[in-house]
Design goal:
Order of helices and strands: HHHEEHHEEEHHHEHEEHEEHHEE
Strand content: 15-25%
Helix content: 40-55%
Number of strands: 12
Strand order of the largest sheet: 2-1-5-4-3
Structural class: alpha+beta
Length: 401
């Protein structure tokens, strides 16, 4: 987090500097729209332009993202031409003199190798070309050069050298954030794979055994359970986005519980109380099912009498409040704390630490699981899900094959 905040500081300060420079260069007293002095107006325009250039760069440095951001970056610098490159080629050129592409790439060897900026004179035989100087500012992420920002102008300018360097640092911060986004996505995918691996082989074996037991005595019941099993496993191993809806997750839980009830019969009872208005809420995929599986495990383990599980989903204003409670064996609170902290094996709590970590990653630390338990007192798990969160949206219904 400290690195992230430092990156934001690096991002903002160069923009303010560039805004001041651009204001001094382009300020006009007319048509300020009540925004203050010419310098203040130019600073606002600079920040606005930067905000438009940032989103494409947050997807990484590619031909498409470079093309979408190059014009905004050229506007920031107020230069005649600007190009963005990777290690091998010019990704996008905006402005005059595109015939300088080859020459630019031939001169980038040293800046791309050392990570140090350079300025050099351009060679040109075109009579109508006004470009005479190029300023190269490398784009670096974690001390690794990804490419370069090259600004071209009619004459040598120390101001342009400084401004190009500052804007390149801002672009580098956007690329660093893109790397963080990609790392976060890879982490979520890895955690979903880990969670799938935790789906108990015993559950799969026992479900198939229960289905087989009905094949001769009650073929229709066996057919129904086989469909439940197919739907549950199909949902659990789907490859269709990182997020789902509360309705789809509860539907998968219903399939899971149908198989569990077929095995344990009257020993397990389940009540559901779901507010219809929270069904469209998006949440991380396979977020609630492991909590229900945990409730089943602790609700039936070591008990000879009946177990009860209740699942409620309530509308709580800007949030959906999901509570899963069982009357099972419970857990020592200190052991639970160590499981959530990753200090001990999670074998005693199926998927709890995984779900808690994913909720915190997606929504923030204040949205981790709230778990109330004690030995012999059952367990109550509460999950708060914001109804609206940037970047959190379901990919849509699972496609039928």
């Amino acid at each position: 987090m400290s690195g992230f905040l430092a990156g934001l500081s690096v991002a903002v300060l160069p923009l303010l500097a560039a805004g001041f420079w651009l204001g001094r260069r382009t300020a006009r007293p007319e048509n300020l729209g009540g925004l203050g002095t010419p310098v203040e107006h130019a600073t606002f325009e600079t920040l606005h332009t930067a905000s438009l250039a940032a989103p494409p760069l947050r997807a990484g440095l590619t031909g498409e993202t470079a093309r979408k951001s190059a014009r905004r970056l050229r506007t920031l610098l107020g230069t005649d031409a600007l190009c963005l490159t990777d290690q091998d080629t010019v990704l996008a050129w905006d402005g005059l003199g595109e015939h300088h592409r080859t020459e630019i790439m031939e001169r980038l060897g040293s800046p791309l190798e050392t990570g140090r900026g350079e300025a050099f004179r351009l060679k040109c035989d075109e009579p109508d070309c006004s470009l005479r100087w190029a300023v190269v500012a490398p784009l670096t992420v974690d001390d690794r050069v990804h490419g370069a920002l090259v600004a071209c102008a009619p004459r040598e300018s120390a101001v342009l050298v400084r401004a190009a360097g500052e804007v390149a640092r801002w672009v580098s911060v956007q690329l660093e954030l893109a790397d963080l986004d990609q790392s976060r996505t890879r982490l979520i995918e890895a955690e979903i794979k880990a969670l799938r691996a935790q789906i108990s082989p015993h559950f799969i074996f026992n479900s198939l055994a229960v289905i087989a037991s009905f094949v001769r005595t009650d073929p229709e019941r066996a057919r129904e359970l086989l469909l439940e099993f197919a739907d549950f496993t199909r949902y659990s191993f789907r490859r269709h986005g990182d997020f789902t809806t509360l309705a789809d997750e509860l539907h998968a839980i219903d399939h899971y519980l149908a198989l569990v009830r077929a095995r344990f019969g009257d020993r397990l009872s389940v009540t559901l109380q779901i507010a219809p208005e929270v069904l469209p809420v998006a949440l991380p995929f396979l977020c609630l099912q492991p909590l229900v599986e945990n409730a089943v495990k602790h609700g039936l383990e070591g008990k000879t009498d009946k177990s009860h599980i209740s699942i409620t989903a309530q509308d709580a204003g800007a949030e959906a409040l999901v509570v899963i409670e069982d009357n099972g064996t419970g857990m020592d609170p200190d052991r639970l704390r160590r499981i959530l902290a990753g200090e001990v094996s999670p074998s005693g709590g199926i998927g709890l630490s995984n779900v808690d970590d994913r909720l915190r990653q997606v929504y923030g630390d204040e949205y981790g699981l709230v778990i109330e338990t004690a030995v012999g007192a059952g367990m109550k798990i509460t999950a708060r899900l914001p109804k609206y969160q940037p970047g959190v949206h379901s990919a849509g219904p699972l496609p039928r094959e």
